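INFO  loader      accepted 1 record
INFO  loader      residues=118
INFO  predictor   begin
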Amino acid sequence: MTSIFCAIARSTILAAAMVATAQPALAQSEDQAPRVEIDVQRIDLTAADQVGLARHRINAAARAVCADVVDVDGFSMRKSACILAARAEGNRQLDRLVQQSLAARSSGQAILLAGKAP
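INFO  predictor   done
INFO  writer      dumping tokens
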């Protein structure tokens, strides 16, 4: 395993939740927002089924990190917005890690073509 891939494998995905519809007095800064760390160290991000497992973990973490969001009007719009935002951020980070993993896996491999005149 290359050192680049090892570094990528040790990376984690942080899903941070911010509620965009919060009132200014109640709004949380990004530093105060609840966070969940998803360890992807043992997941092969070059395999589609393993990436699916990571996405499943992101979905579960997004629901967990937004569990305390309260919708006072009886609709779950704020909680849904929180989950969608956290899921989108987690998937964005995962996509970046997948691309880095694929690039690390393919580095060192080359195709050499030589042409000869007929």
